[in-house]
Amino acid sequence: MILAEVLSAPERSDKVPLGCVPRVVPVTEEIELANTAQAKKRARQAEKRRQHNTGLRSRMRTQIKQVLQAVKGNDKTTAQAAFKTASSAIDRNVNKGLIHKNAAARYKHRLNARIRAL
């Protein structure tokens, strides 16, 4: 089926507005693009590293959200304690190369500004 046919189909079961491109569903089976043994190994390593980085990034975001929740609840002591752990997680991710050092400084500055405003 051509993409134009999909977009112009009048009967659509999902709730995507007409004219919008439907979301691509990820393929469950892996497609091997690498030809050499070295390229296959690098692809395996990259996928393993991507999954590891996703977990670290998620953990950092969770700790940032904990600071924001404490600020929203006007609890300065809890916010300060949460900021200390979030700041440590942010710095760890900078050292691992997950986020840029300026982005980390921006995150910490904005969180600290919200805590100081309490």
Detailed description of the structure:
With 118 residues, the chain is an all-alpha fold. It has a domain at 42-118: Up-down Bundle (Methane Monooxygenase Hydroxylase, Chain G, domain 1). It has helices at 3-8, 37-72, 76-95, 101-116. Helix 2 packs antiparallel against helix 3 and helix 3 runs antiparallel to helix 4 (101-116). The protein is extended, with a radius of gyration of 22 Å.
The helix tally amounts to: 4
Order of helices and strands: HHHH
Strand content: under 5%
Low-confidence parts: 1-6
Q: How would a textbook summarize the main sheet?
A: none
- N- and C-termini, Cα separation: 57 Å
Helix/strand-derived class?
mainly alpha
Helix content: 55-70%
The beta-strand count equals 0
- Named CATH topology of the domain at 42-118: Methane Monooxygenase Hydroxylase, Chain G, domain 1
CATH superfamily (homologous) name of the domain at 42-118: Ribosomal protein S20
Name of the CATH architecture of the domain at 42-118: Up-down Bundle
